[in-house]
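Q: My labmate handed me this sequence with no annotations at all. I'd like to see what the chain might look like in three dimensions before we decide whether it's worth expressing. Could you predict it?
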Amino acid sequence: MSDTSIIDTKKNENATQIQSVNDIGKQILTYTKSIVYSTLILLVIICIGTSILYSCKVAQSNILPTDLLCFPYNDTPLSSIPEIKNININVTNINDIQQSEKIQFLYENNNKNIIIDTLKKMSTNLKVKPIIMYFITILENLLCFIYNSLNTYLNFLNGYVSESVIIFGTPFITLLYLSFIYLLSWGYLIILFFTKMYWIFRINTNISNETTDISSTNYFKQVSLLSSNGIMSIIIVSVLLCFMLFFITIVFPVLIFFILIYCFLSIVTMTSTRVIDGTDYTFVNALIDVFYYKKSLLSYIMSSVVISSAFNVFGSNGGAISLLIVLLIYFKIFKIPLFTDPELDSNKFSELSDYIISEKKCPDMSTTNIDKPLKKVVFKKISNQINKFKTKKSDLNNTSDVELSTLPSGDLFPISHNITNIEPELPSNLTNIESENVSPKL
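A: Here is what I predict for the chain of 442 residues:
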């Protein structure tokens, strides 16, 4: 063999070795990227799943603003605030008995809502314009609808699905549900766009210098279509209809997207307290507990990721080696505490409480449709009027002499309070009489 042949052979061998080393380096890099990518996905799933789990606990406490006719949408207080319940969290088996830590959500600590509070402040301003009330009413109805939708879904998960399944199995299902609610909200917003236009055909007749104190008079009056105010209202409606396609296709989708995110985040950021010691318990605490109490489950998931990635990248030999290492850890030949259960403080745990949602109630009169800004005092006013009518039953038999001369003249006429729940107690021909401007002769 010539010297040239020997040199060529050595060059080929060196090239083969270098290529082999490069291939192994690429495989290791691919394997590392696969593990890192899978770990990041798992972390995202855990964060989303924990937020869903924590939201389920909030939903059971029933402190979300789900009633449009009560606080915080207006100043009508709840007649029965949600019962303070001991809510299960970190459910685990202790001596073959399911037990859990307990947390409580206090209504007074979680009854603030930035958007709803802002809308309420605007709507109770006696100088507020009807066109502003139009948009406020739409937003309040939309917020209430989304909170009710989330509350129903989260309570279902809380009552029928285990914590581990909620954390690792429901993020994708929840994404589908939110997409469904997004479409429903879109359609609902289109309906509100048309059905709340009656606000545009009203005028605020308040001439007082007061802007925030609710008085005894409903300052919003309906306008005649043939008056100057009525013509202006028709023009405003026409402009809205001209831009209807823009609202439906651009404004509404973006608005619903951000409101949906806001509603969910407002739930996750609510705070609770531990029953055992009264300390605050938040979403961050729940996330830390998931990594602690679900450590064994997380180890199983990551082991399956490591083994499957090794088979895919290194082939059967690499996969077999990774499987062997995992088994050595599992059977504690390698002293790495991955598959061991966490140490539990039995003093923190107790038997499971029920998963029944707390009850809350609005006053019976709050089921009526009362136009703002009267919501703050109208219940009291109506109650006084009813008492007057009941004490003068004999006089109410003759209602033909009701004095109507005090009605405002011109293009304005009063709007019915539309108190559906108490309407049977009033004479039928008095239901459209304004509470302060018109009073029967008694």
